[in-house]
Amino acid sequence: MAVAGISTGSRSLSHKIVSVAAGEAHTLVLSADGSVYAWGKGRLGRLGTGSENDEPFPVRVGSDSNLRFVEVAAGAYHSLALADDGSVWSWGYNIYGQLGIDGENAGKPRLVERFLELRSSSLTEDEHGRRKPLKVSFIKAGGMMSLAIDDLGGLWIWGNCPQQGGSNEESFSLVKSSVPIPVWNFHGHTVVKVACGNEHIVALVSAGESYKADDLVCYSWGNNNHGQLGLGDRESRSRPEIIQNFNEDSSWVVYQVACGAFHTVLLGLDKRLGDTLGSICWTFGLGDNGQLGHGSSRSANLPEPVQGLPEETFLVSVDCGLFHTSVVSSSGDVWSWGMEKGLGLCPDSTDMGDAVGPRLITNVNGSTFPDPVQVACGAAHTVLVGEGGFQVWSWGRGRNGVLGTGRTIDAFVPTSVLWPPFAGGQPVIENERRRIEKSPVIENERRTEKSPEMDRTLATVLEEREVLRSKLSIMGRYASLLHGSIFGKPFEEKDIPESLLHSSGTFDVAKEWENMLESSDVGRLHRLEMFYRNMVEGVKDKRMKKRVEEIVKECIAGSRTGRQ
Description:
Layout: E1 17-22, E2 26-31, E3 36-40, E4 55-60, E5 69-74, E6 78-83, E7 88-92, E8 106-111, E9 136-142, E10 145-150, E11 155-164, E12 172-182, E13 191-196, E14 200-206, E15 216-222, E16 237-242, E17 252-259, E18 263-270, E19 280-285, E20 300-305, E21 315-320, E22 324-329, E23 334-338, E24 355-361, E25 374-377, E26 381-386, E27 391-396, E28 411-416, E29 422-423, E30 426-427, H1 429-437, H2 440-446, H3 452-487, H4 498-501, H5 509-519, H6 522-563
Antiparallel strand pairs: 1-2, 2-3, 3-4, 5-6, 6-7, 7-8, 9-10, 10-11, 11-12, 13-14, 14-15, 15-16, 17-18, 18-19, 19-20, 21-22, 22-23, 23-24, 25-26, 26-27, 27-28, 29-30
């Protein structure tokens, strides 16, 4: 089976993706040979290419070292990579010191040297009695914050960090730090996984000194203005506190954690069910756009299961965007929920309505995504790695090349990313472009392409189409507001006059208004009369005020002339 223009027999480590991370408008992928690639918005140096140019296709992150990377992470505007020697590298925005270095933003990966100066909270010695240097085994980023777990299970944070404030042990504040800070609360325990939102952190920590398969306890701390800590209230915490639903005595084993800007998602299994692999997905925090998947837009201060996911389905990966959430099962099913049908698109891009429960995302042919590896969510886009790591799909916001498809328009269905970017040392982007453009959707758009001039014309047409779509969305919202003001109920498609739907370009407004009045009941006519009366009175009042202003101005001008 061919994958991304490369035959099965030619698959290599450089073609296989083992990890993916998404920032506000950029994506990072790690290939099995230790190389890091990026695409999307280049501003602030977040792509690590040495420039701030946008990249619509995957490009290799620039590095002067020959290190092999084993993990990637993305904050809003910065990126991290972990090398196989335990060193941490960072690039992008550095306003809060989230790169772990002093100074300005970094356009290429830079070594976080502060880790070389540190030692773990549980120091060990080698066979010669020398103190072992600290090595990092896991990295994570979110918002303006960076996190790392060392090889002894110690947790470190830097950037815009939630910390104890001042002399009051209970007060909460955010502290700017370019130096990794140890979280001493977990001394004597092992931190296994961690995630962070804009200003909150959630960690899975061993109940005892060492990690066992089913003894993880879930802690949270930081800003809690939307209940994103899952502690039953909205009081912020300066120190880690156990989420009681997942304490040492809980029957649930949490194995995945993800954070959106102001919400949290946990994946867990029931210890009592033994080998039955049926995941439960809990969410809590801000729910205004349905990102909690609870069937409404309400927020939640305590963990609640997501409604609508199939039972006995094992979820292998979860991630959160700003206002949307995505999960993928071992069988390749993907569900999303939240803003704009779970796509995470901002309302100025489209007006599809939020998905308050899981919405199944299918491949272009309506099928599942085979051999899923990981899902990652940016602010308004989603990336899925499947085919065991040899295929990448993306959907959502397309501006600045965020989707990695070579195009800059939004995608409402999964679209193939141009991967791999190299084969046998030769770029295959042009081959990939041709392969993708042969799909039915793209072929219709490019059927008349004959020259570079036609290509530019097509790009202009596509841009104009997106502008028209945006204007149509605005007009739709305006019509809905106006309709609600006049008739006292939301605008629905059935409210559109039949003659307008079937018109060839002309529409008699006066006749339609007369027909509408004829078919209205007494209550509706009364409401129309009141609306008209109030509108007329408002116009008369405004007209009178403007006339008074004109008279006053005339009098003032006349008095000045008289004095002269």
